[in-house]
C-alpha cells in the first residue's frame, strides 16, 4: 500500500505531457472529492490542461475555476490539439443534472459538437448523493439515487467511449500519448465494500427497494460496470475506487435535518478531522489510482482495477456474485435503462 508521501511523489512525477495538453472531465467536480481532484489535476499540470467540470452548482464551479492555476501565457511547451480549434488549455463548467439520461446525452452533444472536444484522457465519475430514503423515480423511470450513483455513470461511459478510444489511439501513435499511457476512468464509490448478493431478478430494484439496499447494490453495480467496459474496451483503464470516510459535502444536511449541520460543522469538527480523510489527501490517492491504472501492468495497458482508500489494488475482493448469463443480463438491462427515448411511464421497465 503506497504511503501518502509515495502517492504524492508518484502524482508529481507523472509525465502528463502538454503536447497537446491532457483533457480531463470531472463529473461531480463542484464539491468534495471531485472538486479536490479538479484542483489536484490543475496543480499537477501547472494549468497546462483542459478540465471540464460537470455539476449543477454554477456559482461554486465559477469560484473553483477562478482559483485554479493558469499556465504562463506564451507557454511554448503547450501544443494545440490537432483535433480541435479550442484554446490550448482552460477550465470550463458544464451544468448537468445527471439523474436524467437525456441530460447526459445532451451534455455530450455540447462537448463534441459545440466545444469541439475530440478526446478524453481522464474521466472522473464522482457525482452522487448519499441517503437511505425511499425510492423516488425520475421522469425517465429510474430511482434518483441509483441514477446518481450508477445509471448516470453507465450512460457517461457509453457516451464517452469514442472520446476515450481517441485518447487510446493517441497513446498508441504519439510520444505524448505514450508518456501518458492508456486513458483512464475513475468511478469513486465503494470498491471492496459490497456485502450480500446482487438480485438479478430485480436489477434496478423496481420490486424491492430499500434505501440501504440501494447504497449496497450501487456499489456492486459499479463493480459490474467497470468489468463490463474493461472487457469490451481493453486499451482503456477502468477503475472503481473506495474513497474511505472523507470530510466532504456529504456531511451537509438539507431540509428538516439542517440543524445537524450545526452539530457536524461546529461541535464535531475536531473529531471529524481526526477520523475522516481530508478531500485533499483523498484526491491524492484517487488520482494515484487513476494514473497508475493507465500505466503498463504486465505489459498490458488498461483493464479493470479496484482500489481501496489508500490506492491499493484489491483485485477481486468482495466482488459481486455473477455468472456469464447474469453478466449478459446486466449489460442488456443497463443499455436499455439508460437509452434516451423521451420520458417514460414511471415504473415501466
Ligand atoms: N465522502 C465520503 O465519505 C464518501 C464515502 C464513500 C463514497 N463516497 C462517494 O463519493 C462520491 C463523491 O462524494 P463527495 O463526498 O465528494 O460528495 P459531495 O461533496 O456531496 O459532492 C457530490 C458531487 O456530486 C454532484 N452531484 C450530486 N448530485 C448530482 C446530480 N444530480 N447531477 C449532477 N451532479 C450531482 C455535486 O454537484 P452539484 O451540487 O453541483 O450538483 C457534487 O459536485 C459520491 O458518489 C459518494 O457517494 C463518498
TrEMBL record:
Native organism: Ephemerocybe angulata
GO molecular function (one): oxidoreductase activity
Chain spans, region Disordered: 65-85
InterPro entries registered for this protein in UniProt: NAD(P)-bd_dom_sf, SDR_fam, Sec_Metab_Biosynth_Oxidored
Domain of life (superkingdom): Eukaryota
Entry protein name: NAD(P)-binding protein
UniProt keyword terms in alphabetical order: Oxidoreductase
